[in-house]
Amino acid sequence: MKQQIAHIALVVADYDEAIQFYTEKLSFRLLEDTPLSETKRWVLVAPPGSTECRLLLAKAVGEEQLSRVGNQTGGRVFLFLHTDDFWHDYHQLVAKEVRFVRPPSEEIYGTVAVFEDLYGNLWDLIGPTA
Predict the structure, then answer these.
(1) CA–CA dist 54, 56 (Å, integer)
(2) How far out from the chain centre does Cα 95 lie?
């Protein structure tokens, strides 16, 4: 048996502003944007070159879900973006005014810096050690 995680739901406040951030600031590809009802859409984005796991941008509904936007993990790093060219991608994100909350550092597993998405979710940008 073979299994894989296909999508990770990321609770967002607004579909269009989330799509704009992920496609323009992070250079993700918009893979699908399908209306499911008047208020619900199936929106998938993924980093360039990614063929496995994708982000499902899920618009928050109700106070409980809205309270999770930007803080799905209680302030811990939530998502980990691996790159084969750390410094190129880091400088591109800085130029696009992505906010880094921890500067690049060398760790046993590679070069890493922590940035925030548009809602404040924390991401590791990682250039893994070969």
Answers:
(1) 6
(2) 18
